[in-house]
Amino acid sequence: MKILKYIFIIAALAIVFLTVYIATGKSEYEFSVSKKTELSNQRLFRYVDNLQNFGDWNPWNDNASAFKLDSIYKGKDAKVTWNGNEAFITKSIPNDTVFLKMNISGNNYDTKMYFDEVNGKTTIGWKVKGNLSFSEKFKLFFQGTPESMIAPTFEEGLTKIDKNITESLKKFSIKNEGITMISEMFYIKQTVESNIENLGDKIFQSMEHMSNFAKNFELEPYGSPFTVFENINVLSGNVRYSVCLPIKNFFSTAEGSDIVCEKLPAFHGYKTVLTGDYMHSDKAWTEVKKEIAAKNLTQRADIKPISIYKTSILTTQKSNEWITEFIIPVNETVIPIIDTPVTDTLAVTR
């Protein structure tokens, strides 16, 4: 009995010693995970910096409907909550870094996600700082290190970001809708150049600039933003275009300003609709040109082709939901009926 008593006492002392040892062990930890991707740093930054997307890529809860956005959901001070947890952005550096703090199941994470693009390829890095709870310390005493236990969860988040954006880019459809009428309008415009691959990023930047310009000068927008394509080279993928915002009345800009005000006359044009990312714009332009030729329409030389952004990057970060109308001005107001010669296939046999 004495031996059993001693064994019991020794075991109890060992448990107490182990508990004290674990409790007084180092709580702070820091590690980094990363993933390489073909996506641009601009596209990745926009996706992460907007917490509307957090419910889709976070590795802790796959029920997007559980996430509640704060009044600010993009950039500094953006916040999202779910099931007693929260995530908020303390700072963001455009196209470079998003500083994200999170409290999940009582665990605080101070993180920094950065996007390093080199030669067309981007590394997404996620640096994590935190403090271990006693239960986590206990698990780690037998299972390994903070990085081996916690890092896989953050790696899953990076994988989801890459997968979600990549899959969204692949989803697109093109539909021909025939001849449409575009009304006369005043608009402000900024002319820029880009290649097809970066078209979405460039258009987004210009749209934001135009929107801020309109607010600063109290201009009243009067319809969806659109783009006038000055020069399209489908083979090289280079595009020179003007990003335009319809306004209610004519506005005179200062001489030398990168933004000017013009008037677009009313015209008829053949319309093809792209649902999906702007990177598929070349396919939509090829389709509308093919339809104009097939239907014996004649393109107007005095008015340049336009694209109208009905649902754009300003509305949703999910590029497969973007709706863009591609319109080439034509001289016709209706699609002409093409007479097809009828050949008599009946033969008389004697």
Tell me what the structure shows.
- It comes from Paenimyroides ummariense.
- There is one protein chain.
- The chain has seven helices and 15 strands.
- The protein is of the alpha+beta class and 350 residues long.
- The chain folds into two domains: 24-170, START domain (Alpha-D-Glucose-1,6-Bisphosphate, Chain A, domain 4), CATH 3.30.530; 173-329, Multidrug-efflux Transporter 1 Regulator Bmrr, Chain A.
- The protein is elongated and about 110 Å long.
- A hairpin with a 2-residue loop joins β3 (79-82) and β4 (85-93).
- Helix content is 29%, strand content 35%.
Concise synopsis of the structure shown:
The chain has 350 residues and is of the alpha+beta class. It is built from seven helices and 15 strands.
How many helices? Answer: 7
Uncertain segments: 13-18, 20-25, 344-350
CATH architecture of the largest domain: Alpha-Beta Barrel
Instruction: Average the pLDDT over all residues and give the rounded result.
Output: 84
How would a crystallographer describe the biggest sheet? Answer: 8 strands, antiparallel
Number of domain units: 2
CATH fold title of the largest domain: Multidrug-efflux Transporter 1 Regulator Bmrr, Chain A
Indicate the radius of gyration in whole angstroms: 29 Å
Helix content range: 25-40%
Shape: elongated
Strand order of the largest sheet: 8-13-15-14-10-11-9-12
How far the N terminus sits from the C terminus, by CA atoms, comes to 125 Å
In CATH, the homologous superfamily of the largest domain goes by the name Regulatory factor, effector binding domain
Output the CATH class name of the largest domain. Answer: Alpha Beta
Question: In what range is the share of β-strand residues?
Answer: 25-35%
